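Re: beginner question about structure tokens

> Can someone show what the tokenized structure looks like for a real chain? I only ever see the sequence side.

Sure, here's an example I had lying around. Input first:
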Amino acid sequence: MIAQKARPALAFAFGPFGVDKLFDASDAGRLSPSCRIITDLPIRDFTTAEAKRALAEVEILVTGWGCPMIDAAVLDAAPALRLIAHAAGSVKHFIAPEVFERGVLVTNAADANAVPVAEFTLAAILFANQQVFRFGRDYSCQRSFVNVSQHYDGKAGNWAKRVGIVGASRIGRRVIELLRPFNVDILLHDPLMDVGEARRIGATLVSLEELMESCDTVSIHAPLLASTRGMIDAGMLARMPDGATLINTARGGIVDGAALEAELVSGRLWAILDVTEPETPPAASPLYTLENVLMTPHIAGAIGSERHRLGRLVVEEIERYLAGAPLRHSVTVEGLLHQA
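And the corresponding structure tokens:
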């Protein structure tokens, strides 16, 4: 009689929410037949006795937002660990180099998270060019359809507008793809991109200076690195045409916050900000009340039902691992260098 192979032990590590926030019932059910789930409650602290018991046997660790640092000490406590499957975006801030040095496979759901961010950005670009927020404000004040729209003789609209994309990241590329059906001219700035590749994906490669000077709407999709921190500074913002809109769904630190606030307070520019630095501006910040600013609390990515998109990708990656197939979304040390 041939002995059946034991099901690999699986544990979750994230918080403060439960497994159901990342996995719908059908996807969670796909894990049970092939994996032995050690505990239904996600681990939030690797130093507890319960966590150490789980680590002692875990082969697959499913992580998410709020996962504690996985360092050499955690790896020592998890000798059977072979796969970390992250049901979110970047793993840069909680995975130590020892994970890769010891040959643990890592995968993440950054591609799934890119979908709602790109969709949010597309909507923001189209609304910005159509000047939806300005018209909404004016209509609320004047309460006259004729005065607000019929007497308007400005440049609102998406026809032949120039859209600037800063960063050909997975999200930046997806935004460019989503813009294809619209009659807009896409300018792209990315120091790692060449002219031919930019043309192939539907954009014109330009310097950051030219992009800022030429575009009606600028959308940021670069990672936050030492080289990109404060990249959109006072000088770059000053190059933007009057009435242009800056959209940031990437990282707040890419933009000089004080310089942006000064431009927005003056009323010269508009902004749609899903991220800021600090992540929550001070309570007295004018960004909360300026009529030319739409600020959202970092919701462009996976929120609500969109989280299940991340869970599905992770389940599919675990199934590939169990089948001995290559992972489709593996993370490498080299790849981390260009992640936010």
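Each token stands for a local structural state, so reading them left to right follows the chain. The radius of gyration is 23 Å.
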